[in-house]
User: Which sequence fits this backbone?
């Protein structure tokens, strides 16, 4: 078990991400997640314990801080940058997602379709009213997003399966991090989040996933997730218009 004394031997603290909701720091091989919302931390700890795929080891917890061991390997890639990972690594990521989706459901629910649709309406109105994105771009992607808002059989979803949250070593998945959004949800949402901005690897992921999926629904989730993300990213100091990021994903649908 890691102790504060061990951490004191490290002379550098890396800020991995920080905004007014939460922050993650790296101190040596330990990640410190600071979150005032203990419900999110509760979900993260329980989801990692339930998941049938590699997850970070919980070293200690002292609210509002959760200490996790670093997972080996490197991230599958980053949004807005080409991925150096092999097709086999992307396929392995798809296989890991399938293992998760085949696992028993977590006891807590996810967001309902009505909640998602309501938020989508609010965000699209905000984007247009404030002139953040062109009306035709929002309207076109809002129409595409409709395909994601359909009933489906819920599975155990990660809920925020960005490529930076999947770690690989060679062609093997070594760990999946950041489980605070885990819940019952749509399997295709996870697949869409994993491949957002990396459409060229969708075939590899689906091959590893090992079953037919509706590609139009995955594309719908790309539009929906991007529309929902833009305001949050802007308000928290991130740039969704960077090359290859959310705004480019929306433009690609035109």
Assistant:
């Amino acid at each position: 078990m890691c102790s504060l004394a061990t951490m004191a031997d490290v002379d550098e603290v890396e800020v991995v991400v920080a905004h007014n909701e939460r922050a993650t720091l790296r101190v040596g091989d330990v990640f410190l997640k600071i979150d005032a919302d203990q419900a999110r931390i509760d979900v993260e700890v329980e989801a990692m314990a339930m998941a049938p795929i590699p997850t970070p080891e919980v070293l200690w917890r002292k609210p509002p801080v959760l200490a996790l061991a670093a997972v080996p390997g490197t991230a599958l890639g980053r949004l807005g940058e080409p991925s150096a990972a092999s097709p086999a690594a992307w396929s392995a990521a798809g296989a890991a997602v399938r293992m998760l989706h085949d696992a028993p459901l977590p006891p807590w629910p996810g967001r309902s379709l009505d909640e998602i649709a309501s938020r989508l309406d609010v965000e699209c109105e905000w984007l247009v009213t404030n002139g953040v994105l062109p009306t035709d771009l929002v309207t076109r992607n809002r129409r595409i997003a409709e395909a994601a808002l359909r009933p489906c059989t819920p599975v155990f979803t990660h809920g925020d399966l960005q490529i930076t949250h999947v770690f690989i070593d060679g062609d093997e998945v070594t760990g999946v991090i950041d489980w605070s959004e885990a819940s019952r949800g749509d399997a295709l949402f996870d697949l869409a989040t994993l491949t957002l901005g990396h459409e060229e690897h969708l075939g590899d992921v689906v091959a590893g996933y090992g079953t037919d999926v509706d590609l139009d629904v995955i594309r719908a989730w790309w539009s929906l997730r991007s529309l929902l993300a833009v305001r949050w990213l802007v308000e928290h100091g991130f740039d969704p218009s960077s090359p290859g990021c959310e705004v480019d994903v929306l433009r690609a649908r035109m």
